[in-house]
Each structure stands twice: as C-alpha cells, then as structure tokens.
Amino acid sequence: MKFNNINVTISKNAKIGHNVLIGDNTTIYDNVVINDNVIIANNCIIGEPNNKYYEDVSNYINPTTIIGKNSLIRSHCIIYSGSKFDENFSTGHRVTIRENSIFGHNCRVGTLSDIQGNVSFGDFCSLHSNVHIGQSSTIGSHVFIYPYVVFTNDPTPPSIVCKGPTMGDFSIIAVGSIILPNVKIGKHCLIGANSVVGIDIEDYQLAIGNPAKPIKDVRDFKNKEGYMHYPWPYNFERGMAWEKIGFEKWKLDNGYEND
Amino acid sequence: MKFNNINVTISKNAKIGHNVLIGDNTTIYDNVVINDNVIIANNCIIGEPNNKYYEDVSNYINPTTIIGKNSLIRSHCIIYSGSKFDENFSTGHRVTIRENSIFGHNCRVGTLSDIQGNVSFGDFCSLHSNVHIGQSSTIGSHVFIYPYVVFTNDPTPPSIVCKGPTMGDFSIIAVGSIILPNVKIGKHCLIGANSVVGIDIEDYQLAIGNPAKPIKDVRDFKNKEGYMHYPWPYNFERGMAWEKIGFEKWKLDNGYEND
Amino acid sequence: MKFNNINVTISKNAKIGHNVLIGDNTTIYDNVVINDNVIIANNCIIGEPNNKYYEDVSNYINPTTIIGKNSLIRSHCIIYSGSKFDENFSTGHRVTIRENSIFGHNCRVGTLSDIQGNVSFGDFCSLHSNVHIGQSSTIGSHVFIYPYVVFTNDPTPPSIVCKGPTMGDFSIIAVGSIILPNVKIGKHCLIGANSVVGIDIEDYQLAIGNPAKPIKDVRDFKNKEGYMHYPWPYNFERGMAWEKIGFEKWKLDNGYEND
Predict the structure, then answer these.
(1) N or C: which terminus of chain C carries fewer CB neighbours within 10 A?
(2) In this structure, how many other beta carbons lie within 10 angstroms of the beta carbon of residue C85?
(3) d(CA A43, CA A110)
C-alpha cells in the first residue's frame, strides 16, 4: 500500500542498496547511503540539510548520512544529514533526529522523539514516544528511556555551555523524568517517574524525586506484588541481545562479566 | 482551499460515504470505511497498516477502520487500521492513533496526541494537546485529559506486563500528570497538575502530588476566588451531552441517576 | 535540494515578496503575505484556515497572515491564518501556531512547539522544542522558554474561563515547568525545572518546586561551580539584541534603564 512510487524524490547523489523500499511522498537528499533490506516508509525526509544550507543554498554540500541494513523508518520522520545508524535501526512516526548523531545497532526511537544532534548511543537503545535528548548527550547500550523524558545540557540557561548527561549501560529512566546537564547516571540504575536528576547516580541505584535522591539498591527493590525484577536483564529478554540465550550466558560471552 | 484533489490517494478497497471531503496530499488505505459528512483534511494517513505489514508487504490484509459520520480529522493525522470512531469524532493536527482503539461518539483528540493502541474510550472524551495514552488503557465517558498527561502500563519497566490504567466517567486529569500502570481512577475525580498517581483514587476525590494522595472531596473544593465548581457537569455544558438541557435533567434521562 | 517546485501550491491571493524560497510539498493559502528574503522550507502549511472554514468551506474568507522579512520557517510547520510575525522569525520543524497570535521580531520557536492562538510575544523570544503555550498568554521580550514547558489558562477545568499567564521581559522558564492560569511572572525571573507555578512571582526571583515558591533573588544565586550568571543578559549575548554592544550599553540606548 505504501510503495507506489508516488511523489518520491531521490537525489542522484544518494546510494540505495538492494531490496530497499521507499514510501510515497518521501524525499532522500544528497549523500544518503541506504544499505540493503531497509524500509523507509512514506512522507519521510532522509538527509535533511543542516543549518549551513540556508546560509548558501547553491554551494552547500550535504554531509553523508548512513542508514544501516535491515532498518525500518516509519512515516513522517526527519533525519538530518551527518547522522549514522547501525543495522536494525527502527523508528515510530514523526521522529526528528538532528545532525551528527551516532546510533549503534538495534536501536529504536519512538513516535515524536526529538534527538537534538551530536548525541551518541550504544547498541540496543530503546527510546519510547516523545523523548527529548539534548545535544552532546552520551548514552550507553541496552538502555530504556520512557515517554516525555528530557536530557538537558545548559546548567545556567541561557549560556554558551553545552554539557549533556551521560547514561550507563542497562539503565532505565521512567516516564517524565528530567536529567540535568552534565549528570552521570551509572550502570543498571532505575530513575523513577517524574524525577529531576541533578546529581550523579552510582551503579545499581534506584533514584526518585525532585530533586532525585538514591533511595536503595535496585537489587533490593521489590515491586507492589513483592517480587524482584532488577537487574532487569535477568528477567526480560524480548528483543534483547540475550534473547533465547539468557543474560548470564550472554554477558560472559560479550565482555560484560562484571555486570 | 484544502480540497483540490491534489496528490490524493484513495484505495479501491475503501468505502467513502456521501458528502465526504478529503484534503490534498491525504492517503486512504485499504478497508477504511468513511461515513457520511466526514471531513478528512490534508496530509492525513487513514488506515495506516500495522506492524505485520512490514513483515509481508505483498500478502498483508489491512484490518477495517471506521470513521463515524460527521467527524472532522484535521491535517497531518495518522490513524491506524483496526481502530473505530463513533460519530462526531474530531482531532487537532498531527494526532497519531494506533491500531484497535475504540472511541465512542463526540470524542476529541488534541494536536500531537499519541494514542498507543488497544485503548477504549467512552463518549464525549476530550483529550487536549500532546496527551499520551499507553496501550490497554480504559477510559470512561465525559472525561477531560489535559496536555502532557501520560498513561503508562508497565509496572516494572522493562517487562512483558501491560496493564493500562482505568479512568471513570466525569473525571479530570490536569496538565502534566502521570498515571501509573493498573491504577483505577474513579468517577468525578480531579487529579491536580503534575501529579504522579500510583494508587487507586476513589470517586469524587481531589488528588495531587508526587506521589499523589487524595486530599479532599471535590464537592468541598473552593477555588482561589472562593467558589465551588465541582462536580463540574453542573457548571459546564459547552459541547457536552447536557448542553441546553442541564446536567440534572440529562443524568436522569440517561441512566446516570447516581452521578 | 529543497526548492524544486515539486507539489507546491500557492494561492493566487497570496503575496510573495522578492527573493523568497518555497520548499517542495508546501502549501500557501489565501491572504498570506510573505515579505522579502523569507525561506519557507518543504512540507509547510502557511495560512491554515481557522475553524470557521469547516462550517462553510465555500464562503469562508481567510484572515491575513504576515510573515516578516528574513524569516526562516523549517519543514512541516502549520501556521494558521490571522497570525503575524515580525522580521527574523525562525522555527524548528513541525511547529503548530494557531490563529491571531502576534510575534515581535527575532523570535524563535522550536521543533514540535504548539502555540494555541491569541497569544502575544514581544521581541527576541526563544522557545525551545515542544513548548505548549495556551490561549491568551502574554509574553514579554528577551525570554527563554525551555522544552516541555506548558502555559495553561483554565483555573477550574473544564470551564469557560480563559486567563493565560503573563511573563515579563528577560525571564527564563526551565524545562518541564507548568505555569498555571492567570499567573504573573515578573522580569528577570528564573523558574526552576519541573516547577508548577500557581502564584505571582516578583521581579528577579528564583522560584522552584511544586508548588513553586520564590527561594532567592537571582542576583544572589551561584551555580554549582560557585559563579554568578544572573541577570543573564550581562553574561550571554549570542543572538541577542545586545550582541557585540553589551547589555549595559544596550539597555541605556533602548529604554531599559531600570532593568
């Protein structure tokens, strides 16, 4: 239904791999590389030119954008030039990703999320709907970031300082939380809903509140029904790197012995 | 201005009623039923295929989508197949509604709202801008949900559990509040701005805070100027089922004697 | 790359100035005035008709919309008719601005922001991503409003009351804060992240929390590293009216002696 070659515009300077589907009303700009078996749905913009384009429309050269193999970009996404996505990348609808952001493999970005540029993500990062990641954030692998979470980068707004937060592997940030500039969140952390995190959070800490404070080790946290779930990789594997293998075996095979 | 038949794509397998207007750059996919006197504005996608489509583009059959009579869908909306809207449905711009969601009559969904699928709404539900309703939520009738409210469904993220909240008739959730998984909000409740609701809230309670706690009966709540407004249906009727009738008479005529 | 005259629709009743670029898939409706040296990028809607259009599609007359000279409207924006923008206006992507809003010169509105109509802005207003400004808000000049901030206008929702907040010159509202109806925020204020402001805030106050309370004079506020930054105009000038002049000299030259 989506691939009728209606109002599709593909730059002559784009490279399109084998078995690629490009939806109606989609535009692929200069110097975009789309690898094999990728689906770009309808009404997308891939390789959006950066701000310099408007300063000199005629002479602008678009930086290279790379979409890894087996990726699925749903409709109405805007992906700027200069960003790179490793294989199995997928998105919801209306995602905006600014320039020079780097995603590892198997990352997912939910509907309406807004990635501000110059951000780096590890592998298997899962961002739900309407997540806002400010410039210069550094995010590990196997993380979950829930709706309406915001990463900020200016400690005394407005200023010329831009220091994004750092988020460690296997950490989780629940819905509506704000991560203040330059904060370091460790590995296997759990940040509760609607928190404002202004201090560094050590590995394995459950932190909540405004201002957020670490309140216990996640390994001691029982949910309402009284069962333990964290560290979550031992209890959740759908779509994860350790699916059908188990986290215990996977971590030994993949250099995560200490996690 | 909007209905010039420019770049409109309508599936041969869609059924379009009488006196229907379809805007420029809009696409209607397979098995969409649009009833009489509906306006679908420009740049909309109606009957968006679900995830199974991408697994087998050639053999996929799109579930039926029904848009009730006299509905108005503003521009840039994406409505998935398998969802059903009773009459007088209306939206703002850029609304996303996922598959298998059911809306009663006279519902409104504001700009940028993101309804995640498998959700049920009663009649006369009013969702303002940028509301996020997670999967499996159950929402009553005559409710108001204000901007940046989020309904969640996973009590120990990430997990395979998906238990959306339940919201009773005539309840109000103010701006920026988060409703945690499986929470039951009763009838005629008022949830204050920026609250995080993790416990069940009984009928007629005003609850606020993080974590939200019931602080008084809404019938005892006076605003800053000292007047009483709740239960609001006695004091507000614009666009409501009881407009020009009054809530007292309407509720007796419509089976709401106990409200 | 963006200006190929593909699927561009411009009303015969629009006035387009000199040296204007209009992107592919953009629609300009009736009675839009675009001044010289403006760039409207791709997939935009300028002069979106208001609600009365749908009541009588044939006889509707679109109010005048004015885009000031040297403005840059990025892709996928929807700007309603009846709004007016003074020179050097710029936007991110997917911005929605409803009818009858007035912007001074050098204003910026970030990606996904949703301006609800009948709002007035002074000059040099900077709204970041995903800001929601409710109807009838009044905003001064040289302000910064950060992501996910919401201005509200109904003190006892739902009701027929609509009283937007007022925000004074040089004030800053940090990420995720909610400004409650009819609240007056003075000049040079700083509202901390995730605050809910329900009381008037006097000039030069730093206010934080839910409910927000003034906690100190911004002129006494030191950041984590121990340095003073506020009033910020003395310490930040990039893109500001006083760039290369300095705030001290600028304010004397521009009638802000008392700021």
Answers:
(1) C
(2) 26
(3) 17
Cα atoms found within 13 Å of the Cα of residue A183, Cβ hemisphere only:
24
Number of domains in chain A: 2
Amino acid at B252: L
**CA angle in degrees (0–180, nearest 5) for A69-A75-A78:** 80
Q: Is A19 in the B-facing interface, judged by CB distances under 8 Å? A: no
User: Within this chain, do residues A135 and A197 fall inside the same structural domain, yes or no?
Assistant: yes
Any idea how long chain A is?
A: 259
Kindly report the CATH number assigned to the domain that includes residue B175: 2.160.10.10
Contacts of B among chains (3+ CB pairs under 8 A):
A, C
Nearest-by-Cβ selection for A94 from C21, C94, C238: C94
Render pLDDT for C139-151 as a digit per residue (tens, 0 to 9): 999 999 999 999 9
In this complex, do A148 and B148 lie within 8 Å of one another by their Cβ atoms?
yes
- What digits encode the pLDDT tens for the residues C48-105? 999 999 999 999 999 999 999 999 999 999 999 999 999 999 999 999 999 999 999 9
If we measure between CA atoms, which residue out of B53, B37, A80 comes closest to residue B45? B53
Task: Record the pTM.
Answer: 0.98
User: Given B114, B156, B176, which is nearest A229 (Cβ)?
Assistant: B156
Shortest CA distance to B205 belongs to which of B223, B219, B224, B225? B219
Nearest in space to C135 (alpha carbons), one of C154, C148, C118, C110: C118
Whole-number Å distance between alpha carbons of C217 and C226: 16
Separation of alpha carbons B226 and C250, rounded Å: 45
